[in-house]
Amino acid sequence: MPRDEIITGLDIGSMTIRVAMGQLDPTGQGIQILGASEAQADGLSKGAVTSIEDAVSSVSKALEDVERMTGIPVENAFVGIGGTHISAQESHGVVAVSKADGEIKEEDVERVVEAAQTVATPPNYEILHVLPRSFIVDNQKGIKDPIGMTGIRLEVDAQIIQGLSSQIKNLTKCVYRTGVDINDVVVGVLAASESVLTKRQKELGVALVNLGGSTTSVLVFEEGDVIHAAILPVGASHITNDIAIGLRTSIDVAEKIKLEYGTAIPGDVAKRDEIRLEDISQQETGVVERKHVAEIIEARCEEIFKLIEKELVKVDRSGLLPAGVVLTGGGAKLPGLVDIAKREFRLPAVVGFPQNIAHTPVDKINDPAWSTAVGLVVWGASLSAKHSGTGSSLPRFSSVADVTGKMRKWFKSLIP
Question: Is 168 exposed, middle or buried (0-12, 13-18, 19+ CB in 10 A)?
Fold first, then answer.
């Protein structure tokens, strides 16, 4: 099996680091996942690196596990980045078409996208993605792919996703220290959208909500393009913390209660349904009502969804997305969450699982928690197949490549 056909996705979350290794299925049935592993994320908080040494050993452990599972060494990876420092903004670029006959070539598209990148980025921020939404040729709006058209003036409306330079560098440093090269740094929720959402959902209008450990990411699509992105500083671990405070138990016991008995709908729980704490941990005594736990969970879920609703209001899409809300990430597995989402958003809601995966020996990836790691493999495969997942034949513009290139040289000079 040629090495260059193997694609590795490295999803660095605030609670768990997940690695998925895959390749394009020879039959063209999508992606074949060859191996997947996960490790507890130490040295990370809310998607940002808090200790480089701990983060390096966590990433190394996850990579070693997948190498042992598949027998294939990981040489390079697509890395998912998260964290509340990531923000999105609108941008506009204008250029004159260079050819005398006025035919728009690929170089013109690249120039106009570069012009859109010259937005006033704060000095300590770096552009991660430029996502062209639509082009304007001589005042004709709504053009998806202008290559081959004729015109004098070319404009683009783009969504720019940027992150704090220091956080991006710290994250890439952790990956390079494990001896793995970085193909590209991708915002986690954007990668998840590649594996979870269908083209039709993106066309109709959909919000993807990725409920992680300590952050929740939101991505809104319409007509196939990203129209809004946001990362909120609350996640599934906050539900666990609330249970620990409400029941006065340890975090570990609260986590077990959430996973075994948790539901977001108190009405589904019988009144006399009780949880004996000594069944969960010998250090604990007493009995708690399951309904009380459900009420704690419901309150926090409603709060998270209200924050997401505010993001939808910002782009005037509150209650106006025909394909509804797709919940993914580890937090999406909580029973009753879909019902609360339907109630809070007044929209259809479903749990999103990784799709388009050909027959795979790895069962555990059929899980919302794996949507980002699998999405990174899909992202890599669509790049290697020279298709871009942005709905047209345009390349994905990433300016992290220059930074990672410089860092790679620097690390190579350090490694004996």
Answer: buried
Give the distance between the most distant pair of CA atoms in the chain. 82
For 317, the token pair is: 């899409």
DSSP 56-119: HHHHHHHHHHHHHHHS----EEEEEE--TT-EEEEEEEEEE--STT-B--HHHHHHHHHHHHTS
Distance, CA of 373 to CA of 13 (rounded, Å):
10
30 secondary structure, DSSP code: S
DSSP state of 40: E
- The reply to whether 211 and 167 lie within a common domain is no
Q: What is the CATH number of the domain that holds 297?
A: 3.30.420.40
Residue appearing with tokens 């009380």: 292
**Cβ–Cβ under 8 Å, residues 191 and 208:** no
Q: Residue 46, by phi and psi: left (phi above 0), alpha (psi -120 to 50) or beta?
A: left
Last residue in a domain, options 322, 354, 386: 354
Q: Does the reported pTM lie above 0.85?
A: yes
pLDDT at 415: 57
Q: Are 175 and 43 in contact (CB under 8 A)?
A: no
CA atoms within 13 A on the CB side of 206: 24
**Domain range for residue 19?**
1-86+162-197+355-416
Residue 147: CATH number of its domain = 3.30.1490.110
For residue 385, the model assigns a pLDDT of 73
Q: What is the pLDDT of residues 119-174, one digit of tens each?
A: 878 889 999 999 999 999 999 999 999 999 999 999 999 999 999 999 999 999 99
CA distance 8 to 185: 12
Together in a domain, 313 and 211: yes
- Residue 387: pLDDT over 50: no
CA-based Rg of the chain, rounded to a whole angstrom?
22
Q: How far apart are the first and last CA of the chain?
A: 29
* Alpha-helix residue ranges (DSSP H) falling in 221-289: 236-247, 251-261, 277-280
pLDDT for 331 beyond 90:
yes
Work out whether the CA dihedral 227, 90, 371, 70 comes out positive or negative. positive
Amino acid at 57: S
The 10 Å Cβ neighbour count of residue 414 is: 8
DSSP 397: B
Most confident of 108-122, 298-312, 393-407: 298-312
